[in-house]
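I'd like us to work through together how a protein chain folds, taking it slowly. To get us started, please write out a protein record for me. Go ahead whenever you are ready, and we will take it from there:
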Amino acid sequence: TTFTIGAGRTLTAAGSAVTVGTNCNFAGAGTLLLEVSAPNTLLTYTTPATSAVPNLTIADNVALAGGVAGSNLTVTTAFNHTGGNINLGTAELILTGNYTRTAGTYTGTNYITWNSAGVWNHGPAVTYPKLQVAAALNLGATGMVTVADELYLNGFLLDQTTGGVGYLTIGDADGAVVRVAGAGNMATGAGELAPTFVSPTDYIFVGASSNPNAFTWPANQARNVTLNTNAGAIVTNSVTRTINGDVDLTNVVFEKERKKI
């Protein structure tokens, strides 16, 4: 079943729940608006294994839930976050269009995933529990971005060309995870800046061969390192580094030009 929202129209869901069934989606050039009307304080949006909305605006407290393990909701054209907290609970939020945030917060244990050639504008300072970079992303010089729990560099570069001021912080007092797949890395070209790491970081390498640079993996940043890539993949260590915790090698070649443990 497809629910089509016509161009110039807004469909507002203001109750306590929106449940999308298997093989059901929203379509059309209009906007689905999620907000909360009293006495409700939270709207739970439940997606099946996968579902899509072209244009989604969240203006109030919303919990994103999945009907099965690995569920996701994809916003294909424009995602606008204007207020409220989005709890990324048992479903992943995938953005394949433009992203504009003017207010609002994020909590939960799942990813917000950028997989778009569109415009990213996170607005004022924001914290993401987990951010997955599955397409090239330039944060830009707006508010500070903190990735508190996990940054997943999934095959693409994360840039912060921000005029000499760093806008990216990774981790909190409890540490963080940086997960790297294939060509995923922090960009290191002219005008690029290294992120600020709050505390020791666990590194996990998956997928294809990787060569993490010094912005992605600074010399003394690693607590534990896990290499669980595709069979035959190579993780290249091209700078001097110290690993302060455990090393777990599974199904990988660790090519060490210079390495200190």
Summary: The mean pLDDT is 93. The radius of gyration is 19 Å.
